[in-house]
Amino acid sequence: MTFLIYLAAYLIGSIPTALLIGKYAFxxxxxxxxxxxxxxxxxxxxxxxxxxxxxxxVDVGKGAAAAALPVILNAETDPLMAGMVAVAGHxxxxxxxxxxxxxxxxxxxxxxxxxxxxxxxxxxxxVAVIYATKYVFFGSLSVGASLLIYSLFTEGTEHELIFSIxxxxxxxxxxSNIKNFIDKNEPKVNDKRLxxxxxxxxxxxxxx
Length: 208
Known about the structure:
It is built from eleven helices and no strands. The chain is globular, with a radius of gyration of 17 Å. By secondary structure, the chain is an all-alpha fold. α4 (49-72) runs parallel beside α6 (104-114) and α5 (79-91) runs antiparallel to α6.
């Protein structure tokens, strides 16, 4: 049963939301525009607020659905573990050539179902760090760091291991952002260069 739950969680996580929205609503591959990341942040940058809201809600829902599987099926599988498998699917989706997003929205959905305190700590940290630094990737990394710190003081050894791996996972996923930051090329959230990534509405209609 645990294997089947993990398999279902991975497949749920592998649904490439931003890729599907970009392809069928705008006629583009979101991975060829902006930061090339098929996630809500790049969708906002390239396709606008409405598309980004849809991507965000569906990606959060993927994590929540995966974490809910053990409860729905009355299995002994840890909902957090099932959810983190969905996060892996989101980042390395079998339905999109293993080129996926960077984990943050789907992780939010997992934590909403699995542990609300983890969710609050991680995403208050996310918002606060972005506000302080103006860099989204720092906020993303703070999610992993805050979850690891929380688990060290409140959770068992198993969760400490999960979040240690998760933090390393986030560092790997954001390696290009880290390199850009070191090279002083990483844009801040209020950087005017980001506006240049937006596909004009007339081009969106033309490509749809």
